[in-house]
Amino acid sequence: MSLKDKTIVVTGGSRGLGLGLVEALVEQGAKVTVVARDQAVLAAVKQRLGVAVISADVSEEGAAQRILADVRPEILVLNAGATPHMEPLDQVIWADFTATWETDVKAGLYWLQAALNLPLKPGSRVLVGSSGAAVNGSPLSGGYAGAKHMLRFMARYANGIAKHKGLGIRFQSILPMQIIGGTGVGDEAAGAYARSMGLSPWTSSRMARRCAPGYSESPTTARWTFSAAARFARLNLSRWRTRLPTRRVQILWR
After folding, report:
1. Which residue in 19, 41, 48, 201 has the most C-beta neighbors within 10 A?
2. At what angle do helices 184-197 and 201-211 cross, to 10 degrees?
3. In this structure, what DSSP letter does residue 104 have?
4. Domain that holds residue 32
5. Does the residue 84 lie in any domain?
């Protein structure tokens, strides 16, 4: 499947991993619309990449229905989310603990509902951004791991509804299995875990890469190291798998 001229909406595509994905999609000739809140950042992305942009709060009820009805994407990437406040369980306050539920899960609910109820046309795909924390936990990021695990369930539930209704829409959750430097969440996590171990963030990030399954000092790994967000985002979207070693990301079909 070629991505040339495919209409794609990416939420949270103005920075970090989402921006890397947008860059990869543009390279493949897709017609991309980026949804994010910061108008100034969106303007810069639009000028540099020539994509369409929409300024919106993805967790606002009604935003998803309005945007999807207007753009009618063939592929929807739900990447937007809050950067968790990093504190151990015995110190975190409830507002910080639930921040990712109020943003990531809330937005996920609205956008999945819109995709199902509009609905998107048959053959459409919806990618739901989760995290390796959904599998392994994340003791310093409050409710983040639980929120990302809930998004996995929601993608599965959406698949069941789409099948029951005969919509022909496929929902998938994507789980990066290691910290990705150069992203808001990745940098915050690396810094927090480094401090908890008495290390510098750079040292912690390097250790995480070296401890990752399949790590080797190959040119591929070097490219991963120095441009993590963009390289990670260069997915083989026709088969929904990464070009980098497969154990670094899980793509779940249900």
Report:
1. 19
2. 100
3. I
4. 7-179+229-252
5. yes
Average pLDDT over residues 176-190: 69
More confident residue, 71 or 1: 71
pLDDT cut 70: percent of the chain above it: 74
- Domain CATH for 38: 3.40.50.720
End-to-end, the C-alpha distance of the chain in Å comes to 21
Which two structure tokens, joined as six digits, stand for 28? 């493949």
Contact predicate 32/10, CB 8 Å: yes
**Burial class of residue 41 (count of CB atoms within 10 Å of its CB; 0-12, 13-18, 19+):** middle
C-beta of residue 56 within 8 angstroms of C-beta of residue 103: no
Strands 249-252 and 170-176: antiparallel
The beta-carbon contacts of 200-207 under 8 Å, at least 24 apart in sequence, are 205/179, 205/181
Q: What is the pTM of this model?
A: 0.79
Report the range of poorest mean pLDDT among 35-39, 40-44, 76-80, 243-247.
Answer: 243-247
Q: Based on the structure, what is the number of domains in the chain?
A: 1
